[in-house]
Amino acid sequence: MSSIRFEQVSHAFGARSVLRDVNLHLTEQRIGIVGANGSGKSTLVRLINGLVTPQSGTVTVDGQTVGRHARDVRRKIGFIFTNPDNQIVMPTVREDVAFTLRRRGLDKGQIDERTTAALAQFGLSEHADHPAHRLSGGQKQLLALAAVLVAEPATIVADEPTTLLDARNVRRISELLQTLPQQVIVVTHHLHLVEEFDRVIVIEEGEVVADGTPERSLAAYRALLA
Fold first, then answer.
1. Residue 1, exposed/middle/buried by CB under 10 A (0-12, 13-18, 19+)?
2. C-alpha to C-alpha distance for 97 and 100, rounded to whole angstroms
3. Lesser CB count within 10 Å: N end or C end of the chain?
């Protein structure tokens, strides 16, 4: 589990401010982040592993400033995108999972063993040699999870991982995220996904407007929607 800290973090895209003076310390195992489209929540989580660099303020992971120690931080933080096609990089399912480990310099035996175990964990063994981009939407998201988790990060950040899925796969991915041993930080519009989390943060127009238990934070968010 990682200790993630935002200190006076602000960011803008051109003239549009998307985050303003955000201060957070994330240490819980299950953290949900909710907010309307354009509220800044996706930008917030992309700051955690350096996909976005803050224009002011600092983001640290276990005391390391993300901008200065991006490589070390990315070994600790696994990132899951909304659209798994954005992170599938190899032709077959097995190759895509193994690719992460090859970059870590493991030998072939270690790579094969861990890849096989990851495919089994996510129910992808029978698709191991299939073209990755021909999987169903749910299978692609499982592949994205497998390819990240095989590297054994301390924290998983998932940016709306169920948005493109049907109801059955929403449930499947939700159950997986609930039971992973890693720290999990999830941006979502599916509020039921974070109802049993340890903490939920509500972002509105680039600011933290609620932060606490799921019951309190989701009630505040529903009030905003109303």
1. middle
2. 6
3. C
**At residue 16, what is the residue type?**
R
Q: Which of 221, 164, 153 lies closest to 192, judged by CA?
A: 221
Handedness of CA 63, 181, 106, 81 (dihedral sign): negative
User: Residue 15: its pLDDT value, please?
Assistant: 82
Q: Quick check: 101 and 150 in contact, CB under 8 A?
A: yes
Domain, as residue range, for 152: 4-225
Question: Please, which residues bridge with residue 157 across strands?
Answer: 79, 185
Task: Give me the DSSP letters along 210-221.
Answer: EEE-HHHHHHHH
Give the pLDDT score at 158: 92
pTM of the model: 0.91
What CATH number is given to the structural domain containing 141? Answer: 3.40.50.300
Would you call 225 exposed, middle or buried from its count of C-beta atoms within 10 A (0-12, 13-18, 19+)?
Answer: exposed
Give the total number of structural domains in the chain.
1
One-letter identity of residue 183: Q
